[in-house]
Amino acid sequence: MLSVRYLETLVLLVFIACYITEEKPLRKRSISEMQLMHNLQEHKQVGERQDWLQEKLKKIISPSNKPQQGQPANVKSLLLKEEFKKSI
């Protein structure tokens, strides 16, 4: 079996390795890289907002064949009404 001394040394080495790697970042990011990441996040948020708004508008404006309170159902009926008024 493994000796206690060997296990203590192994735990100490793992602890030191974790401490060293956690302490130092790999490298600092440049300003342009930070700006690029910011712009990417902003672009994603705008896209998500547009998708959300599109879904909300689909729920509000649903296509139907019924005209809404005095509004004609389509352009053809509007033109027919205008021609009818002219003939009178």
From TrEMBL:
Any one GO molecular function term: hormone activity
Alphabetic keyword roster: Cleavage on pair of basic residues, Hormone, Secreted, Signal
Cell compartment(s), UniProt: Secreted
Cleavable signal peptide: 1-22
The keyword Calcium belongs to this UniProt entry's keyword annotation: no
GO cellular component: extracellular region
Any Gene Ontology biological process: intracellular calcium ion homeostasis
Function, in words: Parathyroid hormone elevates calcium level by dissolving the salts in bone and preventing their renal excretion. Acts by binding to its receptor, PTH1R, activating G protein-coupled receptor signaling. Stimulates [1-14C]-2-deoxy-D-glucose (2DG) transport and glycogen synthesis in osteoblastic cells.
Subunit structure: Interacts with PTH1R (via N-terminal extracellular domain).
Family per record: Belongs to the parathyroid hormone family.
Protein name: Parathyroid hormone
